[in-house]
Amino acid sequence: MYGYDPGANIILRYSVMTIFVASSVFLHLTGSVCTVKSSAGKEVILGSNFTISCTFNKECTKEIFRNMKQISNKQFNNSIVVSVRNLTEFSTFACKCKEVHDPDPCGIDITPGYPPDIPQNLTCVRKTEFGNVSCTWTTGRDTKIVTTCQLRVQGDPHLSYKSVMNSTGFCWSTFPIRSSKMSQLVVSLNVSNSLGSKTSGPHTFTLRNIVKPSIPQISHVNCSSQWCHLHTDNHSMDLVEVQYGAVNGIWKKLETNAKMNLNITSLQPDTKYKFQIRRKINHRVGLWSDWSQEKETKTEEEAPVKELDVWYLQELKHSQSGNKCFHIFWKELNISDAKGKILKYNISVLEQKMTSSNTIPPSRNDHICCSNCSVSVSAVNSKGQSPAKFTELRSPGLQPQECYQGAVTALHTSGPIMAHFRGVSTWQSAPEQGPVPQPVFKNSEDLQVEWSEIPQEKKRGCLKKYTIYLWNKLTEDTQNYSVDYPKKQYTISGLSPGQCYKLWVTAWTDAGEGPRGSDLPFCTPTDAEKLLSHVILAGGGVLLACLILLCICQFSSVQKRFLSCCQCLLPTVIPDPANSNCAKTYTDDQGEIKFYLHKYDPSVSEDPENVEVEEVPYPSFPCTYIKSFSQESSSSDATQSTRTTDYTDDYISTHGAISGGEEEEDEEEEACLDEFEFFPSTHSPFLEPLVLTGGKLTLDAVKIDCSEFLDCT
Length: 713
Description:
By secondary structure, this protein is mainly β. Among the domains are: 31-113, Immunoglobulins (Immunoglobulin-like, Sandwich), CATH 2.60.40; 120-206, Immunoglobulin-like (Sandwich), CATH 2.60.40.10; 218-298, Immunoglobulin-like, CATH 2.60.40.10; 310-393, Immunoglobulin-like (Sandwich), CATH 2.60.40; 426-529, Immunoglobulins (Immunoglobulin-like). It is 12% helix and 40% strand. It has eight helices and 46 strands. The strands form twelve sheets. The chain has a five-stranded mixed beta sheet with strand order 2-9-8-4-5, covered by helices on one side. A hairpin with a 7-residue loop joins strand 12 and strand 13. It is extended and about 125 Å long.
């Protein structure tokens, strides 16, 4: 089933073992001088450590060998012992006496290996509905020693079915189903060798589900141009799968319930196909059979249905009759379009009358001489010919001193591929006009110049390049620079500051150089002019920034932010007005002015109490302060006469407006305000007047809180 004979490997291994065992037995029977023994036996686990001991039956010089090489040992009376470490390969150990006349030596063969793994990957298949069952399973790696596989069938009087594991860890067993009434198969597995044993199971199979039909056969195939009919042998299966495809192509699959006659459609004409089939009891039960042998056949041809791709070239020489001659070409049809083998090509020329000729493949061109004619080409196979492709033969109208461009198209299965070409001219001369240059960018060392396109009628052919001429007025030297067409821009570097130049451009064709265009005079700036231009640019930039900042500061929100920023930069300690120069110098009171500051309490219907405020002016250098008495009272429902009142006096500047009063401003007050620089001037063009409101006005009340300005959230 798997194309492998495990018996061959086992026979070879047994042969090798038999040779070594027979050799040891022979030595022992012929009167060996010693006996040898392994502490771990003749089969050990790979990489084991153990000892080999030899017991001699006579006095002699004792020696021990491993694979015919002497090794060191320990001697104890009439025996020697050697320790073996990490044994990984088959080894032969032998002991003997050194004397030549002594009897034959004794020896032992040690084989390293592995104990078996747990059996797994069990697969059971029944050949036909009444055949034997074949089971296979694996035990992992090769044990390297003789390993026995056993399979037990529940209900089978036979104890077990045995086999020997091969070198790939593969076991198998084949057995009959002894009862026709059995619907389920229950098996147990065992794998064992001298180093260990492993068991798995029980494993249960439904017999009907493991039935594998015999391999079907395709007796013969009949085909037309687009379908094939498969005839198969008789069978009782209800499901058939067909696998088919063009030779060296992709396989396709088709399932059908037909038993004997299978139809495959949508095939290509004149194509070789291969077919295979397999079968199964039905969709729900059983296994697929193996594929049948391939059957090859070829579909019939059809007449081509696609026109040929035709093109032509006019030859330079005319015929003796004066007619123009043409070379006709056409592309070969691909396999799917030809629908068969192309036998010939029909070429028909229509001038005053129709004339025909034939061309035999593989030739795909023809030579025709005619005047004012057209040609048709078609492909012919055994079933007919393709539609005729008509082409009118005419000469292009190429004008002298003109530049043409064209393209060549290659037809490919993935699509057309086009290659462009330009610069084609029948006859040309030097250009009649030169380009007009214009400066794009200029500094003290570089000049970027561009020029206009020459009118088409002045080119007189295909332009190839431009030449830029640069004349230095001081040294009267001329430099030139070459620029490939169609570029129309170039940067000249390495100019000298403060020098004057003249520039012009010419155009070239293959026939020569045209006249110079208009001149472009220019001078490079000196280093001082360059520095001055940088200063002007920098100054202009600063002025523009200031104007923008001035415009932005006209917005009230910006002014408030700016005010808060400036006040945050000043010390947070607010000075006492009583310590000012004005207050220390003028101490005499010159008069009193009393007025009332009404504090409104919405809970009281009567008029609020009056608060006395006195103004103390100073005579020679007036500096006015308001001495206020703030009233703090409870808000109970008691009458006004029973309220308790506390007064505290503070000083505030009259620069602030009192709620409910009129604003007082004069020049003397402004002079006094200069003493307190922590109050910003209200006459700044960037700020609004500072207005203080509220019933209680003290210096603590007008302290600036910068937390809102510093809070970026």
